[in-house]
Write a structure and sequence with these properties.
This protein is mainly β. 13% of the residues lie in helices and 35% in strands.
Length: 241
């Protein structure tokens, strides 16, 4: 059963503003500044604990020209974060309107997600004690954009465990993607019948494969197959400080 969160990926409209909120405001570390591997001309930012441990990660695609997102079927209602920046549990929003529940704690992490979905569809896939809750159902389909989640990723310890999931998902008709190499982990994706996109990501190899721990997130990290485009991408992407 899917039992542990690996990361939650959301959409923002302004990378710099998002860094200021999550790094400077909530105390997360910017552990990787890279690009969306499926759309390399836009940022993909990873926030987590100091080394980007699975389960601590909030990630963001930057879509600067997209319409604001809208909650509905196929997205998460809110994300619960642990952060040293609050002293009591409270609710809030990030600069794009993403709904957050904030819980005090020394180490930043993602604690729980609340889905706008159909709970019976998750039986047999997600453990009853997993950090997944359900909000009020909606007849309206979500519009994915700034201020909404894009997908939620669950942990697989290694490639072998992920391969078991790949076979199982195919057998039950959920049509998982082939394994995608995301440099810092390997991923498969599938969509639930209620529209929510799930990812199953391996714990390794982690964020230290291309940067030392003491300078994580400082420079633009690119996979080997995009290195030839580095000068173009660095010119196109607005600097983040």
């Amino acid at each position: 059963m899917l039992a542990g969160l690996h990361h939650v990926t959301c959409v923002c409209s302004d990378a710099q503003r998002t860094v200021e909120f999550y790094r400077d405001g909530l105390g997360f570390s910017l552990v990787k500044k890279t690009v969306n591997f499926d759309d390399p001309h836009s940022y993909h930012l990873y926030f987590g604990d100091e080394v980007g441990s699975p389960g601590t990660l909030m990630t963001f695609f930057e879509w600067p020209r997209a319409e604001p997102g809208r909650l509905g079927r196929g997205t998460l209602e809110s994300v619960t974060l642990r952060t040293p920046s609050v002293t009591f549990e409270c609710e809030g929003e990030d600069p794009d309107g993403l709904r957050l529940r904030l819980v005090p704690g020394e180490t930043p992490a993602v604690l729980e997600v609340t889905a706008i979905g159909n709970p019976p569809l998750y039986a047999g896939l997600v453990d009853a004690d997993a950090p997944l809750r359900f909000g009020e159902p909606s007849d309206e389909t979500a519009l994915i954009g700034p201020g909404t989640t894009h997908h939620v990723a669950w942990r697989a310890a290694n490639d072998a465990e992920q391969a078991v999931w790949l076979q199982r998902l195919a057998e039950v008709g959920l049509r998982p993607t082939p394994v995608q190499d995301r440099t810092y982990f390997r991923s498969i994706y599938f969509r639930l019948p209620d529209g929510i996109l799930f990812e199953i990501a391996t714990d390794g190899p982690g964020f230290l494969v291309d940067e030392p721990a003491d300078s994580l997130g400082e420079l633009l990290s690119l996979p080997p197959w995009l290195e030839s485009e580095r000068s173009t991408l660095e010119r196109e992407l607005a600097p983040i400080h």
